[in-house]
């Protein structure tokens, strides 16, 4: 066993103690990267806006058009919990925004490997209009080329580090870890990026006066259980923005105000919802 010492920085400790935090707690917080009292406020109002995500406007514009025109969408997900929850979030979000039910494509780990591959694109129907990746795609150069060759538009949403080359000719690439993206929270999971795409698209559709009495605007808080679950399961860093997502999502799960699938998993695992922690 190895004991790893974390350093508490002087300035944050002072800022925290002068805000009334116990000095021992202040040192623990500081050693975990908390810079000041604001970082301890986990209210949803502190959640970063999507606006600093590179290409998010283009992505939202393209998805809004797809929703309004009932285009045929293919979601390219992944087989881990981040990819699966992110895909669920996108499908549910697109339906809630008034779009047509998208088809879901998850690669076979044994035969197709990971990500949007030409093999996965080959399974998509010929009349697909738009492919949206979630938790993958930033390295899918051949897969995007195959999709473009079939005439499909592509929106990449991902959070993995970008390689030297990016996929070409996409409608948009949304990834906090791509070069030139100013979004400060680089530890956002794939499910968080998917959440931001739905948030930005909702704002775009609101601008277009798409919502009304006959088509109510969805409340984004209904997706927070999925965001919390997959941010934790993907072992994303507990930086402030992720802690806000997690605190809000876990609170909803504890109050059983979450999707029935998560309650069913908890039941099988023998865990009482009110006892759920990260
Ligand atoms: Mn992931």
Automatic annotation (TrEMBL):
Give every DDH domain span. Answer: 73-231
Signal peptide per UniProt: none
Presence of keyword Nuclease: yes
Q: Which UniProt keywords apply?
A: Exonuclease, Hydrolase, Nuclease, Plasmid
Q: Name one Pfam family in it.
A: DHH
Transmembrane regions listed in the UniProt entry: none
Q: Look up keyword Phosphoprotein and say if it applies.
A: no
Reading the lineage from the top rank, the first entry is Bacteria
Q: Which Gene3D superfamilies match?
A: 3.90.1640.30
Q: Which InterPro entries match?
A: DDH_dom (IPR001667), DHH_sf (IPR038763), SSDNA_exonuclease_RecJ (IPR051673)
Q: Which GO terms describe its molecular function?
A: exonuclease activity
Listed EC numbers: 3.1.-.-
Q: What is the protein name for this chain?
A: Single-stranded-DNA-specific exonuclease RecJ
